[in-house]
């Protein structure tokens, strides 16, 4: 029995030495690149929206001036309708800008969370997560999934209790999410994740 136990330190040492972080570093770089592209896209969208908003504001002012200066009731009615239309368009554009900023904030928060989770997993002491005699199968599973570009929310606690999976495409760097509800079969979830790698 004691002789069998003496083999475990060597097994643990071999396990630790076989962990590779190159793919983790590459994944981290892809996350940073995705954040950069998302930020640049957001800035372009906001600049375009602001330009359109300024143009609409100028047209709105001109329409208001035209309505005030016009003495013809038909022209006044047309100007009033144009003013209302521009007001609605301006409101819709302002709402789109707000939605865009909200989406950006949500996506940025998701990327930051992925970054934090990856840093946590990269910095954790593997030997502290492995019992003296038996390798923790959960940690090994997580390492395997991460090497494929798949993360689970709450994976530092219990992979069996997670309710959301995130997968990053190796071709496009896009991040997809799927809720691990009971309505999805294991076969469906496996196919969904595999097709998006």
UniProtKB/TrEMBL annotation:
UniProt keywords, alphabetically: Cell cycle, Cell division, Centromere, Chromosome, Coiled coil, Kinetochore, Mitosis, Nucleus
**Residues covered by region (Disordered):** 64-83
Where in or outside the cell it occurs: the entry states:
Nucleus; Chromosome, Centromere, Kinetochore
Among the GO molecular function terms of this UniProt record, one is: microtubule binding
Q: What Pfam families would the database entry show?
A: Spc24 (PF08286)
Instruction: Show the Gene3D superfamilies listed in the entry.
Output: 3.30.160.430
A single GO CC term for this protein reads:
Ndc80 complex
The superkingdom of the source organism is Eukaryota
Q: What does this protein do?
A: Acts as a component of the essential kinetochore-associated NDC80 complex, which is required for chromosome segregation and spindle checkpoint activity.
Name this protein carries in UniProt: Kinetochore protein Spc24
Q: From what organism does this protein derive?
A: Trichomonascus ciferrii
């Amino acid at each position: 029995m004691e002789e069998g136990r003496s083999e475990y330190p060597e097994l643990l040492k071999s396990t630790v030495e076989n962990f590779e972080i190159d793919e983790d570093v590459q994944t981290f770089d892809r996350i940073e690149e995705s954040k950069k592209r998302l930020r640049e896209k957001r800035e372009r969208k906001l600049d375009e929206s602001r330009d359109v908003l300024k143009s609409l504001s100028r047209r709105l002012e001109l329409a208001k001036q035209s309505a005030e200066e016009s003495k013809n009731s038909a022209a006044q009615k047309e100007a009033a309708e144009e003013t209302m239309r521009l007001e609605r368009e301006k409101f819709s554009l302002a709402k789109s800008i707000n939605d865009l900023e909200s989406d950006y904030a949500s996506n940025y928060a998701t990327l930051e969370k992925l970054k934090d989770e990856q840093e946590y997993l990269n910095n954790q002491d593997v030997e502290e997560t492995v019992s003296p005699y038996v390798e923790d199968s959960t940690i090994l599973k997580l390492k395997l999934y991460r090497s494929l570009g798949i993360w689970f929310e709450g994976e530092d606690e219990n992979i069996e209790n997670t309710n959301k999976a995130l997968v990053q495409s190796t071709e496009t760097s896009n991040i997809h999410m799927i809720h691990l509800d009971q309505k999805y079969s294991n076969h469906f979830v496996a196919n969904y994740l595999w097709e998006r790698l």
